[in-house]
From TrEMBL:
It comes from the Bacteria. This is MucB/RseB N-terminal domain-containing protein. InterPro entries: MucB/RseB_C_sf.
Length: 318
């Protein structure tokens, strides 16, 4: 295997047009190599996003510090910086240094894969090595879900994402990378990352999580390949929600249910409030017996609606 893997890389890079479908063992080795190379050391860089769904282009500066995490800011956005800790995105005010809000993080373009999801990834996707990129093809739809673009050292320097039905959604590309930057913005971000990584790690240790199973019945319908990965109780604006995160190793969706009714309702019949599709993301909201429900994820709208319907029929209660 140690001989075969460099040979595959050699053939791909030396002979343009060469493509190789990898065995599960080869795929695991390639994935681990890309992860290791991509997160080998601290860096500051500039990424470009081409959003095909919105017809937009923007530039993002990114700081990665090993052992602490990521901080990133869209160029022209002067008031806040975003930070990743665990599976959450923290929005931090640059002037006060305080967290303004916290959101679940379903997709993160600056990391090719999540190490903890590798078994699911290998179970649900076929890997094809093409020239300077690795295409991930869904075993269930036969369509490319994502392609990872390599740099000279095998690190990820870009990725293309696709909707569940195969439509190109976006392309992220690293334009510049500096392993030892020295200017005020980096120093400021380093201080904020150090501060909030310590605080968040302490808070995560005390966050209430459900061991293994949900406290009530969940949706009986789950798309092929997806599994429940995390279940936790969270608070937003004084209101408490149960959150359930499903993943197939690459794509994710999250189901929220209010921990108690938001209003008194005499009817237990479900009421659908909204279904919104934006690019490859779908958002479905509903209500049942005064409880509020929300689904957000990288799904076909029809599939998102089926999940919510199943959830309301079988779950939706404490």
């Amino acid at each position: 295997m140690r001989v075969l893997l460099p040979l595959v890389f050699f053939l791909v890079f030396v002979f343009p047009g060469f493509a190789q479908v990898l065995s599960p063992e080869e795929a695991r080795s390639v994935v681990e190599r890309v992860l290791e190379a991509s997160l080998a050391g601290d860096y500051w860089g500039v990424w470009r996003l081409k959003d095909f769904a919105k017809g937009e282009e923007r530039f993002v500066e990114v700081l990665f510090l090993k052992g602490m995490g990521f901080a990133w800011k869209t160029l022209g956005e002067e008031e806040v910086v975003h930070m990743r800790f665990g599976h959450s995105r923290y929005v931090v005010n640059l002037k006060s240094g305080e967290v303004e809000s916290v959101y679940p993080l379903l997709d993160f373009p600056f990391v090719p894969f999540e190490r903890e999801d590798l078994p699911l990834l290998l179970e649900n996707y076929v890997f094809e090595l093409r020239e300077d990129e690795l295409a991930l093809i869904s075993r269930w739809t036969g369509k490319v879900a994502r392609s990872i673009i390599f740099g000279d050292g095998g690190e990820m320097i870009g990725q293309r994402t696709y909707a569940p039905w195969g439509e190109p959604l976006a392309e992220w590309r690293m334009l510049y990378r500096d392993a030892s930057p020295d200017f005020p913005w980096v120093a400021q971000m380093t201080r904020l990352l150090e501060l909030w990584s310590a605080r968040v790690l302490g808070a995560e240790a005390s966050r209430r999580r459900f061991p293994g199973t949900s406290p009530f019945a969940l949706s009986g319908f789950v798309p092929l390949g997806f599994r429940l990965r995390r279940a936790y109780l969270l608070q937003d604006g004084g209101k408490k929600f149960y959150g359930f995160v499903y993943s197939d190793g690459l794509r994710s969706f999250i189901l929220f249910q209010s921990a108690y009714p938001f209003r008194i309702s005499a009817s237990s019949a479900p009421r659908y409030l909204q279904l919104v599709q934006e690019g490859g993301m779908v958002r479905v909201t509903a209500e049942k017996g005064g409880f509020y429900f929300l689904l957000i994820g990288e799904l076909d709208p029809r599939v998102g609606q089926e999940i919510m319907e199943s959830f309301l029929q079988e779950g939706g209660r404490e």
